[in-house]
Amino acid sequence: MAQQLIGFIGAGNMATSLAGGMIAKGIRPARIWMSDPSRDRLDEVSQQHRVHVATDNLEVAQRVDALVLSVKPQMMASVCADLRSVVAERRPLVISIAAGVTVANLRDWLGEEVPIVRCMPNTPALVQAGATGLYAAEGVDDSQKALAAQVLGAVGLTFWFDNEQSLDAVTAVSGSGPAYFFLLMEALIDAAKAQGLDAATARQLVLQTAWGAAQLAITSEAGPDVLRQRVTSPGGTTAAALEVFEEAGFREHVQAAVAAARERSEELAG
Ligand SMILES: NC(=O)C1=CN([C@@H]2O[C@H](COP(=O)(O)OP(=O)(O)OC[C@H]3O[C@@H](n4cnc5c(N)ncnc54)[C@H](OP(=O)(O)O)[C@@H]3O)[C@@H](O)[C@H]2O)C=CC1
Ligand SMILES: O=C(O)[C@@H]1CCC=N1
Questions:
Q1: How far is CA 8 from CA 16, 101, 155, 209, in A?
Q2: CB 3.0 to 4.6 Å from 7: which of 33, 112, 135, 182, for a disulfide?
Q3: Which terms under GO biological process does the entry name (predicted)?
């Protein structure tokens, strides 16, 4: 595994986050290849990370042991069609991070025999605080699973699932999840400003509170429900606020939002 080469097809946000995390964990940049249609993007990436770059996806596919497909789901069929003959010949491990794109889709586009790991990371991978769900299709061996775990584990925690459908739920929870927390941060910053705090202070108070709450929840033995109760003095300010959330159907909205994300993930499979 030490010398295996890893190639990213698409040098966007997620691919550069993963590559940056791998390098921060001690993987040599020379083991990493990246392709993208944009020369400017590649110049930026090679300057920042010192990885190999190419505008031609096939140049990358011809060299590597694991191919991380990191283009938008809508691009995946055409990207795979171009890669098909090289993948059939060389049989690299294919790691897909695309939302919704299934193993069956990838087998249709790349060939039946290709070893495939489907993953769902999230953008906190940028700061090595990602959470990734992984599913290994039939035919993936232990060393290939270890390689996939090395790539995704470089940027945070990894969780293996035995059935592929679970990845749609993972997409709706942790893949899209950072956006839900960012929305709450935005709303709380707006509310802070509406209460007369200046914008810079509002932002700092909200972000530090979000970070502190997450740290407390991660390090505490108590669950989020207990931690919430500890903030909520009877008849106090938090109780007044939580009552407004509950009356507005906050929990039901969260359930409905996550269900909508899951449904969209299933639709993206086509
Ligand atoms: N963003 C997120 O939070 C998450 C995203 N994902 C998945 O990761 C994948 C990538 O997302 P993200 O990084 O956000 O998207 P980006 O748009 O940032 O990255 C995709 C990159 O692929 C490039 N590209 C387009 N066409 C091709 C092609 N034919 N060959 C090679 N590269 C190409 C794009 O170039 P150009 O911009 O010029 O089109 C772009 O640089 C998606 O499938 C998404 O579902 C998974 C988990 C979380
Ligand atoms: O919104 C999306 O489709 C992608 C997948 C999960 C997060 N972003």
A1: 9, 17, 15, 36
A2: 33
A3: L-proline biosynthetic process
Tell me which of 33, 36, 180 to substitute to probe ligand 1's pocket, judged by most ligand atoms within 8 Å of the beta carbon: 36
The Cα angle at residue 223 between residues 220 and 228, in degrees rounded to 5: 100
Give the model confidence (pLDDT) of 27-57 as tens digits: 999 999 999 999 999 999 999 999 999 999 9
Q: Which residues line ligand 1 (CB under 6 A)?
A: 9-15, 35-38, 41, 57, 70-73, 75, 79, 97-99, 120-123, 175
